[in-house]
Design a protein that fits this description.
Blueprint: H1 2-18, H2 22-33, H3 39-47, H4 52-87, H5 106-120, E1 124-126, E2 131-132, H6 134-137, E3 163-164, H7 170-178, E4 183-192, E5 203-213, H8 218-233, E6 239-244, E7 249-258, E8 275-284, H9 286-291, E9 300-307, H10 308-316, H11 329-332
Parallel strand pairs: 1-4
Antiparallel strand pairs: 2-3, 4-5, 5-9, 6-7, 7-8, 8-9
Helix pairs in contact: 1-4, 2-4, 3-4, 5-10
The structure holds 3,4-dihydroxyphenylalanine.
The site of 3,4-dihydroxyphenylalanine has 11 residues, from strand 8 and strand 9.
Length: 337
């Protein structure tokens, strides 16, 4: 009996010595002290069958062994956890892993700013489908069938005679059809063109504005654009209108702002001109009013368009539009907000 106890003790000592971590020690503990199949548990059960004369001595030997096993396990556990703290995977001096808060994409930020500016002025926000019909994208906007804008080179056509809208102007038509004047709306959204280089992307974002009522004049248009441009860039600047042509307005214009980088004296960003192009605008063409059943003798209105990427690029000094679509965190993290 004594030798059996002795043998178990030796085996236990070597098992403990080999256990190098908490999991291995737990396994040793179960092997020896486990309630059902533990070696010591079995030994204690055998005690009941031992001859009476030996029982006392055997009992003491088993109990001594049990005490030894428990103490040795405890000591080994302490050693393992100290070793882990000192040199192992837990280094309490390591800085924590930072959780970076998400930020809005720079385009989303500029979009929100533009919406805010027009909401302040009492405009409504309107939306329309990205897949449009020829009627809304071209015809109702007085763009005739042979117009070059309809060319396959510029427009993505999809099945069923539909197309991906090439501008947000169709939202003008949809809004005028649904409502009666006075109308004061902006529409912000994605537009699509077959175009791709440092300043053009096949998908980009535009803002379209439309105001229709009785007595709306070109002066209202100019004041609105000037206020908008000053608010969006947060600085005093001059607005310049140049005569231009868009089929859906008459007269039509392109509008520029005095260069936000040099103040108008001429620099590399404005190519020495002192001005930066912003977008197109004009007074709503009577033919457009007729398409939506408005009386052009009674109502006048102005419309304008602009690119959201362009504003984001100017505001942040970004010179390649593709940076806005690559989802490179090193780039996006520079625009917290
Ligand atoms: N739709 C034009 C474009 O995408 C932009 C534009 C020009 C909109 C003049 C207008 C406007 O409302 O009056 O190029």
């Amino acid at each position: 009996m004594q030798s059996r106890v002795q043998g178990i003790r030796q085996r236990f000592d070597s098992d403990v010595a080999r256990a190098k971590d908490a999991a291995a020690l737990e396994e040793v503990r179960t092997r020896y002290l486990g309630r059902r199949a533990g070696i010591l548990t079995a030994l204690l059960r055998d005690l009941r069958d031992a001859p009476k004369a030996e029982r006392a001595a055997f009992g003491k030997a088993v109990n001594d062994l049990k005490a030894h096993v428990e103490a040795a396990l405890e000591a080994a556990r302490g050693k393992v956890s100290r070793a882990r703290t000192a040199a192992g995977p837990i280094d309490l001096t390591l800085p924590g892993r930072a959780q970076r808060p998400g930020t809005f994409h720079p385009i989303t930020q500029v979009r929100a700013l533009i919406e805010e500016i027009f909401l302040e002025m009492g405009y409504t926000l309107e939306t329309g489908p990205e897949i449009e019909t020829d009627f809304y994208n071209f015809e109702a906007l007085n763009i005739p069938p042979q117009h070059p804008a309809r060319d396959l080179q510029d427009t993505f056509y999809v099945e069923g005679g539909l197309l991906l809208r090439t501008h947000t102007s169709p939202v003008q038509i949809r809004t005028m059809q649904q409502r009666r004047p006075p109308i004061k709306m902006v529409a912000l959204g994605k537009v699509f063109r077959r175009d791709s280089d440092v300043t053009h992307s096949p998908v980009f974002h535009q803002v379209e504005g439309l105001v229709v009522s009785e007595g709306i004049t070109f002066a209202h248009l100019k004041g609105t654009l000037q206020h908008f441009c000053r608010r969006v860039f947060g600085k005093e600047l001059r607005l310049r209108l140049r005569p231009s042509y868009f089929p859906f307005v008459e007269p039509g214009a392109e509008y520029d702002i005095s260069c936000i980088f040099c103040g108008g004296s001429g620099c590399s960003r404005c190519k020495g001109s002192g001005f930066i192009e912003m977008g197109g605008a004009g007074m709503v063409h009577p033919a457009v009013f007729e398409k939506v059943g408005y009386d052009p003798e009674r109502y006048t209105g102005f419309a304008f368009g602009l690119g959201i990427e362009r504003i984001a690029m100017l505001k942040h000094g970004i010179d390649d539009i593709r940076l806005l679509y690559e989802n490179d965190l090193r780039f996006l993290q520079q625009f917290p907000g």
